[in-house]
Amino acid sequence: MSDEILNDYLAIMRQMDLMNRRFAEIIKIELDRNNIYDLKPDQAMLLFLIGGDEVTATEIMQRGYYSGTNVSYICSKLKQFNYINTTFVENDKRAIHIKLTSKGEHLYRLIYDAVSRHTKHFEANKLKYEQINYAVLVLRRIYQLLGDFKI
Question: Which candidate, 52, 76, 77, 75, places its Cα nearest to that of 65?
Fold first, then answer.
């Protein structure tokens, strides 16, 4: 492996971590701006990922967003503060369906609007769709290759 690929790969990993932190900061600012103090950014981010779907905790984990322990804890907090409703799956009482409440939908919309403002900012600063799309494709390919890697 060339040093250039190694260095760029490590730079990508660092940048992804920084971007995740920055996105959490942006979510925190949005929560504060709207006087929402009962949730942490990671909880609001999971709520945003649920969106308008009805999902199971297993589906959230399979999408690769969170581990099982985190999903259980975050969902319990979201339910405690009335951002989600949960119902047991008919055929499997161990699994639950998760859906946003009206309060959760309101928060989803606030975050969605903030993210939409970001994309307008990207466009205003000459970041084009093709560039973002290419970055997504490359990151997906790296993710796939990491999953295929055998130690």
Answer: 75
